[in-house]
Amino acid sequence: MFDANRSLFLRGLSLFHGWLPFLLLFVVARLGYDRRALFAWTGLAWVAMLTCYFFMPAPGAILANPLVPVNIDYGYGFSDTTAQN
Fold this sequence. Notes:
Blueprint: H1 8-12, H2 16-31, H3 35-55
């Protein structure tokens, strides 16, 4: 987004982060929300985070397959080469 070498259109694609939360709040207020979903989605998020943290390779690991994802969602910190201290 902040790279001047990218086109203005491409950088502008990320502007949906500004208006989308307000649209989602409006839709939830208008249509309602099933309270059971909060627990289900929270549980699913925890399972996904723990799976990525414990079963994916650590940052800096030398892998035979370069397409294997490393440091998914920055679970080890913001570096792809060293673990968070």
